[in-house]
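REQUEST FORM: STRUCTURE PREDICTION
Request ID: SP-0412
Submitted by: Lab K.M.
Chain count: 1
Length (residues): 468
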Amino acid sequence: MGAATFIAAGIIAGIDAIAREATLFAAIWFLAGGIDDLMVDLVYGWRRLQLWWRGPVPEPVLPPATAPGRIAIFVPAWDESRVIGAMLGTALARFDYPDYRIFVGTYPNDPATIDAVAAIAEHDSRVRLVIGPNPGPTTKADCLNALWRALLRDEARDGERVMAIALHDAEDMVHRLELRVFAHELNGYDAVQLPVMPLRKAGSPLVSGHYCDEFAEAHAKQMPVRQTLRAGLPFAGTGCAIRREMIGRIADVRGGAPFDAESLTEDYELGLTIAAMGGRTVFTRTPEAPGGPPVAVRAYFPDRFDAAAKQKARWMTGIALAGWDRTGWSRAGAIGDHWMRMRDRRAILEIPVLALAYLALATWALSLAGHIAMQSPLPAYPAWIGWLLGFNFALLGWRVAIRTLFVTRAYGWREARWSPLRLMVGNMVALAAARLAMLRYLAMLAGAVPQWDKTEHDFPEDAELAAG
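STATUS: Completed
RESULT:
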C-alpha cells in the first residue's frame, strides 16, 4: 500500500468514526425526544377516548351580546404605523360587544405610530392613545405597564373598574365574537386563551406556512393536553384575557407593575404566574357557529427566513434559556407541570442534536464517496444500531402524520401537503434562531438591557376573508 493510499484510508476511517459517533449521539437524543412527543400524543388520545366514552358533548354556546362589564384591550405598539390604523379600524368595526375600550401604547420617539393612532382616537372615544414615558424600544412588558397605569387613571376618573383586560398585538385580525367569549368564560375562570391561527402569505408557503403547522398542533393538541394534566397554561401574547382582580393581585405582588419589564416573553410568564397564584385559566375552542371553526385570532407571521429566525430567537431566549432561572419549576408533586415546562425548554437542548444530525448526514455522504473511490467495503455496525435508526424513522413518520392531521383539520389538505417540507424548514429556522438566542442570552447575563426586538408586520388587505 502506497503512502497516499495509506493516508486516504486513514482519512476515510476518521470520517467513518465521526459519522458513527455523531449518528449514535443524535439517534439516542432523537429517541428520547420522539418518545416524549409520543407520550403527549397518547395523553391527547386518552383524553379524546374519555370524551367519546362519556357520549356526545354539546359544543360551547356563544353567550348573548350583553356586557357584564367593560373589557379593556391592551395593544402595545412600537414602530407599527404600517398596520395599527388598519388593525384598529377593523377591530372597531367587528367587535360584537357593547362595552370595551382599546388602549394603544406608543413611544414618544415614534411619531408615525402616534399619528396613526391619534387619527382614529380623535373620532372614536373607544380608542385611547397612551404615550409612554420612556423612548422606545423598551420591552413589550414595559409598554403594557404604561397601559396599565393609564387604565388606573381612567378608572379613578370614572369611578368604575373594568371587568377584564385583553391582550392583542398591533397586527392582529380580531374575531368579532371574541369579547363575548371572554366575558362568558371569565364568569368561571381568572383568565382565558383563544386559539391563534396564523395566516399564510401568498408566495411564502414554507417560511410563513410553517407557523400555520406549528400553531395548528400546539393550539389543538398541546394546550388541551396541558389542561388535562392541570399544568400551567402559558399565554400566546394575543387573544387572551385576564380578570381585572387577577391582574391587580399580580401588580400588588410586583410593586404596582403587573408585567415584568425585564422579560422578553412576558405573555408566557404571565400565564405561569397566574397558575402559581392559584388562578384558573381555560383554553377554549368555542365555535363561531355550530360545527364551524373556532373563535380565534388570525395574523400574519414572518415570511422571510431571517425575520422568522429573529422572532423565534426572542421566544427561545425568553422561554428555553431565561426560563430556567426566571420561572423555575412548579410546586412539588406537580408532575404534569414539570413535564410541560421541561418540554418548553427542550428546544435549546434539541438544537445541538439537530446540528449533529446534519453533520452525521454530511459525513456519511463523504464516507460513501470515499469508500467508492477507494473501492473498499463500507464499515459494518451492530444490528441494534439499525434497529435504533429504524425506530427513530418510525417515530419521525408518526410525527409527520400527526402534524399533517392537525393541519388538515385547521387549514385543509392543500396546506397539509406542505407539512413534511415545512417541518424541515422549521428545523432550519430553529438552528439559525438558536445562535441568535444564545448570543442574546449571554449579553443579558453580562448586564445588557432587554429590548423589544420586533419584526415588521403586515395586515391582511381582505379583512373578510382573513377572519370570521
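NOTES: Residues 55 and 447 are 56 Å apart (CA to CA).
Reviewed by: T.R.
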